[in-house]
Specification:
The chain has 14 helices and 19 strands. The radius of gyration is 26 Å and the shape is flat.
Length: about 425
């Protein structure tokens, strides 16, 4: 049994009212367990007194304190000849779930109160509505940009109300929603767009700056791509031929940009920030991961929890994004022949994707590191023992080199103990 606290597991040595905040958090965002009779560090203490009375106490505390009452189940288990109580709480559909008038969420191993923006999102989720579903502030919208893209990608000659309804950009009555407003030719000043800065040798030298806002998300996307091509794609003359060269893979930038637009939060006054440096591009998207998905699932699991499913659906129809949940894998694939690799930083309020300039040859790697890099490139995923056999390195040397490559964000480590394997990012 897991005896270490994490985002969906809390340990309690004894019963106190504090666990009710975590019940609210699990009911609001993700299934979770609260185990009573175990200390924070995993030491089993067991339940003192009558198990039946303690279970009844927990049940009554939830029923009397959480509104609405979430789905939960209480079980008893014996560990080390001591009885513990496991409280399972399921994520509910009737969000928000309040404890003493406040709603809570998990932040790593802590339980914290949600802010007013998050509370509003929970309320919309409880009515089966995303922010993008809400009625647009303007109902005088034009869709020339969207119509042009639909003609090219879907063969649609003319956009009309039926097509807009099919795309879920307006409801059955004909009112445009926020997703429709964001994809219209013009949208309101309350929506922040994209802020792009191109730096010189350092961040004190700004070569170019452009803020793209209050126009269709499709225009924002295309304009950002044009600026990228201006600085990171060039032509090289080889004999009698001109060859296009990419300092940073265009497809990796396209995927990162689309990911930022589709998954960002729109109800905060914050821009998607794109910082273009000589050796990398940083794309910062407002809003962390959607609730219910972990960083590992986001990076490696091909799991997609859509924050803006209507906008994502339109981008999918226009072939801007492909299968949902494969974006990170597609970005990494563009760097398969490069020593430098993308990096991903995930916080509660922001996701940052860092795309480095491609490095086919690297002076930063030792001969031994290059040997393991080439081995993993050829073989795919290997265990440390397999790497030992193929390189002739002893255990300590292999571990030292592998740890160095992990630290340099060139390879990834998965599993634990003897099942650990390594592969290129």
């Amino acid at each position: 049994m897991e005896t270490k606290e994490k985002y969906n597991l809390e340990l309690k040595e004894e019963i106190s009212k504090t666990f009710l905040k975590t019940v609210s958090a699990f009911a609001n965002y993700n299934d979770g367990e609260i185990i009573f009779g175990i200390e924070n560090y995993g030491n089993v203490k067991g339940i003192i007194g009558s198990i039946e009375e303690v279970m009844l106490k927990i049940e009554n505390m939830i029923n009397d304190s959480i509104t609405p009452v979430p789905y939960f189940k209480i079980n008893v288990k014996e560990i080390e000849n001591k009885k513990i109580i496991i409280l399972e709480v399921r994520k509910g559909k009737d969000t928000p779930y309040y404890y003493r008038g406040k709603a809570y969420k998990r932040s790593d191993t802590s339980t914290i109160e949600v802010d007013r923006f998050e509370l509003r999102r929970l309320a919309m989720e409880g009515t089966n509505m995303h922010y993008e579903d809400r009625k647009a502030s303007s109902q005088e919208l034009k869709f020339n940009v969207l119509e042009t893209r639909l003609k090219k990608e879907a063969g649609i000659e003319r956009i009309d109300l039926d097509i807009l309804k099919t795309l879920n950009l307006c409801n059955k009555v004909g009112y445009y929603n926020i997703a429709g407003e964001l994809l219209a030719d013009k949208n309101g000043i309350e929506f922040s767009g994209i802020d792009i800065v191109k730096f010189g040798k350092d961040i004190n030298k700004i070569q170019y700056r452009k803020t793209i806002s209050n126009v269709s998300l499709l225009t924002q996307f295309d304009t950002a791509i044009d600026i990228f091509e201006q600085y990171y794609i060039f032509e090289e003359i080889e004999g009698y031929n001109r060859t296009k060269k990419e300092l940073i893979p265009k497809e990796a930038f396209r995927e990162s940009l689309a990911n930022a637009i589709v998954h960002r939060v729109w109800d905060t006054n914050s821009y998607i920030q794109i910082a273009m440096h000589e050796d990398k591009i940083e794309i910062n998207s407002p809003g962390g991961l959607p609730e219910g998905i972990t960083k590992d699932e986001y990076l490696y699991g091909n799991i997609s929890v859509l924050r803006n499913p209507i906008i994502a659906g339109v981008f999918n129809r226009l072939s801007i994004i492909e299968k949902f949940g494969t974006g990170i894998a597609r970005i990494n694939k563009e760097y398969i022949n490069s020593i430098s690799r993308p990096d991903y930083e995930v916080s509660e309020n922001r996701i940052r994707i860092i795309l480095p300039v491609i490095e086919i040859d690297s002076l930063d790697l030792s001969k031994d590191e290059i040997l393991i890099y080439e081995l993993l490139k050829a073989e795919g995923e290997l265990s440390r023992k397999e790497i030992d056999l193929k390189t002739g390195f002893n255990k300590s040397k292999a571990l030292r080199i592998l740890n160095s490559l992990v630290d340099k964000n060139i390879i990834s480590r998965s599993g634990s103990g003897p099942t650990v394997t390594y592969k290129l990012l």
